[in-house]
């Protein structure tokens, strides 16, 4: 028996966890949002929302959303010489999400 097997014995199979919520349409899956839009803007064309919801529901954009929340923007008020620069540094995932909003 190896040292790794002694330190980390095999464990049971984990079967009581839900699957990751990904690769679905976040717009068509939100009945309350669709009902509110239908009530408040009955003539609104939701085709763009459906397309955006499909993209935001992918595993890639779910990861971007998680990383953008974990790594919040950082303010750099001064440079290394003490001069005021007021620069905000964003995680690349934040930029990936914002590119969809443009």
Textual characterization of the structure:
With 102 residues, the protein is mainly alpha-helical. 46% of the residues lie in helices and 11% in strands. It has one domain (21-101). It has a two-stranded antiparallel sheet with strand order 1-2. The termini are far apart.
What is the strand and helix layout of this fold?
Blueprint: H1 3-7, H2 31-40, H3 47-56, H4 59-70, E1 74-78, E2 84-89, H5 92-101
Antiparallel strand pairs: 1-2
Offer a quick outline of the entry:
It contains five helices and two strands.
Task: Report how far apart the termini are.
Answer: 58 Å
Biggest sheet descriptor? 2 strands, antiparallel
Unreliable sequence segments: none
* Structural class by sheet pairing and helices: mainly alpha
**Largest beta sheet: what is the strand line-up?**
1-2
Share of helical residues: 40-55%
How many strand segments? 2
Total domain modules? 1
Order of helices and strands: HHHHEEH
Structural Rg: 22 Å
